[in-house]
Amino acid sequence: MPMKIVSWNVNSLNVRQSQVLDYLESHHPAVLGLQELKQTDEAVKREAFIQAGWHLVTQGQKTYNGVALISKSAPENVVRGIPNNEDDPQARAIAASYGDLRVLNLYVPNGKAVGDEKYHYKLGWLEKLQAYVARLLQEYPKLVVIGDFNIAPADIDVHDPKAWQDKILCSAPERQALQALFDLGLTDAFRARHPERQQFSWWDYRMGGLRRNLGLRIDLTLISPALQLIDADIDMAPREQERPSDHAPAWVEIQ
Fold it and tell me: Catalytic residue among 140, 157, 219, 247, which?
């Protein structure tokens, strides 16, 4: 049976919880992964999700970061964070099983600027992620990795490649780290479905980013070889709402 898995950086769950609930009601995804909750686990208002029949698991953090998985079926074997990275206080990863499907939801560090200490933290984090995903693929052949990767995979995913060349989100080391995940066998579902289409998932609030389509595709849905890709796309409607997140949901349909 086909399953729709969605990734959405909501840029504050507290601000956009009603938008998330509306999206769940209208789209009925099997799993919705959220990034940038910007709330602690205790602060998340869970009752509305529970009343609507959804299961919600989170790895929260005050003010920054935070990830969640929302589903109709109960998640099993929930793992928060990246193994062997337990000393890192940043809430950036959560994984759970839904039957024989494993879903890993990520909020990859931004990195701030090439050469910055946060950039080096990002590259180190991605190296640990690669080792984690390699282990997951051995244990869970049916694996979906979703999230805000804060990396544009290629120049087609950037509105102005020359302006972004060697800049944060587009630097060669970041793209090489993403390629390392592809080398493990994961497929970028959107690009597999739309080899030549330029479509973005993030637009800066400033400078009329959305109106002028000054975007990047940094929200990704990656699938393992054991899964059959039916479709994948980016849903523009939530980005065009009042008080939207600066990201649009990216989704993949598999079986």
Answer: 247
